[in-house]
């Protein structure tokens, strides 16, 4: 599960805050983090463009790729247009779960700007998602959310979005096991993935519970390393709990956002196969997609190479034709990379303008700073219920 990496990733939030606040003059927190500097973004864009050119040249003139070129040349445009629409919808579902997890009272305009900007940062800067995390931390700190809340809610966000994918693998493996689904193309892979997904879920839940019990008595030393270790420990321990609390509360935004993001992205891959005249059985499409997504965890910008290899390899193990699979995966990745990248870049410009115009941090802080537990407190019941 992606949440297993959160204890490392959320440390980026504390580094962002330290750069913004430690010994800084007034207004220093307004500065964009170094990870999001125009120089770094331009360098990443150039790298992505060069990689795209290299891939295009290899596909166009590379030996032994005649079948792939013929597949791409005969793609049906209507399916590709549908794929673009599905990716836009997936991005909107991402904004929905971002809004539901980080603060249901946040203005939708601000939720859209931050959520879409994170998607763009992950496309352009992503090293296992730290580009989007740094951007989200900067925007939320500017809005008044504490670093502790950012860490906890980031873990909750990763836990919930990962849980949608992991649960789908477990359910599909169980349906094959009890005979509801038939003709498994690779039973060892299906059952192995299902068992690994179940084990990962149990480990994460047990680890979070253990960290919560030990957090009060834990002594991780002093200094910056000790503070970072305490921050990671508390973020993982209480972030998973916050995610479970949101599920128990039946948050519509959380459920729709997590499932919708996954379903639309999965449907995008399905229509890319259809664009090349190949319709996959839904269980095979889902399992190949969910298992192949593990390749996107390789720390390269935009998952280029890692995600493609993971998806192509997974579908090859489920005995799908290589040329069609390669064409579908390349087009899928191009759409899933550049659509949120372009939309998110525009949203990032809007976000910077919004934060520059906002001169009442307390007004923005109030809806951002409420902990998740406060959602369940009735109005008027204690201090938490009196917040506006």
Approximately how much helix is present in the residues? over 70%
Distance between the termini: 36 Å
**Stretches where pLDDT falls below 50 for ≥5 residues?**
1-29, 360-367, 374-388
Strand content: under 5%
Order of helices and strands: HHHHHHHHHHHHHHH
By DSSP, the count of extended strands is: 0
Please state the average pLDDT score: 78
> What's the structural domain tally?
1
Based on helices, strands and strand pairing, what is the structural class?
Answer: mainly alpha
CA-atom Rg in angstroms: 22 Å
The rough form would be described as globular
- How many helical elements? 15
Main sheet record:
none
How would you describe the overall organization of this protein?
With 388 residues, the chain is an all-alpha fold. The protein has one domain. It contains 15 helices and no strands. The longest helix has 36 residues, at 322-357. The chain starts with 5 loop residues before the first helix and ends in a 19-residue tail after the last helix. Residues 1-29, 360-367 and 374-388 have low confidence and may be disordered.
